[in-house]
Inverse folding.
């Protein structure tokens, strides 16, 4: 699995539950279309964590880079309804940061004589 990470803060006046519900609709649509496997929304607790990463953290799981590219292409087309869901989330956030990680070791990693 590859995991696309998004860290962000909410714009002033944006409700946290409203944000979470909009993310659920957006990611739910992507999942229903087979463009992602799952998504999880987390929130910094007790102020613990690097401030530069933001208060909210989304973890979007995809099977591989092909699935992620298909998801990006779908969103980039800017057609309804996906554009509406994207805009409904994007309009609420600021300070977004992104990263892409993979499960490790994964099937691609050749182990050779290496010991864990």
């Amino acid at each position: 699995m590859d995991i696309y990470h998004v860290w962000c803060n909410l714009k002033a006046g944006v409700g946290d539950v409203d944000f979470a519900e909009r993310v659920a609709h957006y990611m739910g649509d992507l999942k229903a279309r087979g463009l992602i496997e799952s998504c999880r929304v987390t929130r910094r607790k007790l102020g613990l964590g690097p401030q530069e990463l933001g208060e909210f953290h989304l973890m979007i799981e995809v099977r591989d880079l092909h699935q992620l590219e298909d998801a990006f292409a779908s969103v980039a087309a800017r057609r309804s309804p996906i554009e509406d869901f994207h805009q409904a989330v994007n309009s609420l956030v600021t300070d977004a940061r992104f990263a892409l990680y993979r499960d490790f070791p994964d099937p691609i990693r050749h182990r050779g004589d290496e010991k864990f």
Remarks:
- The chain is about 35% helix and 30% strand.
- The domain at 2-102 is CATH 3.30.70.100 (Alpha-Beta Plaits).
